[in-house]
Amino acid sequence: MANRLEVLKTYKLYIGGQFPRTESGRYYNPKNSKGEVLGNICLASRKDFRNAVVAARKAQGGWEGKTAFNRGQILYRIAENLEGRKKEFIDLIVLEEGLSNSKATDVVNGAIDLFIYYAGWADKYQQIFSSVNPVSSSHFNFSMMEATGVVGCMNTSNTSFLTFVGAIAAIIVSGNTLVCLANETAPLSAITLAEVFQHSDLSAGVVNILTGKIDELKSHFASHMDVNALLLNGQGLDLSEIENIASGNLKRVRHWDLSKNVSSPYCIKDFLEVKTTWHPIEQIGGATAGY
Fold it and tell me: What is the pTM (predicted TM-score) of this model?
């Protein structure tokens, strides 16, 4: 059948633990460096983005409320499932990023290792970044770290699968939830990773993945009043433009360029807030007691 037309796979969005088609009904067909069409990719709309934020907000309290040990277990389970599908992801990265098989293998192995790395940090970053503070009054003063809340992440067209995974793991390990826009020109591995999340005990809505045009969605990511922080992952965006829009609700904006080391506890700290508590001290018979 020499005239047979190839049936391209349609890759859906990942919102609230489900795989809906874009409400706009629009798709695009990115090509790799060889001119091969990668598939039918959803062009997410503002409505899709808003739906993802609602799902992330709904999931955030329950996800942060899990024990750190449990969040670490779930990240480790993601690594286990990604290991089981390693060959599939290697083939996807060879196809969309144009890497050799050996380099694509290194990328996927690195992604698996990143999930394990951050799983190990789940119950340790508090001890590193929290503190007991000296004060001159009769109080104990403690500073502890809390999740920022709902984080938006936009990945530019020069980000790799490894950087994408590092951002996800670093953001969610502390209890944040995430709305992520995949690399516009290499979205296959990102949206396929959603299938791994779906079978890894990750609560619905913790990670939401959109595909589409960054120029269409960047202002919505920056202006949405229920997005607490924003990560610009990669190069090519006008940072001042994004920061001006995000200032409308004092949204924290972080930028990770291509030289960023994505395996660092300071990547977790980028999306933590400091809560300081004052605890009075009572003097009882010459002894000090807190109450």
Answer: 0.90
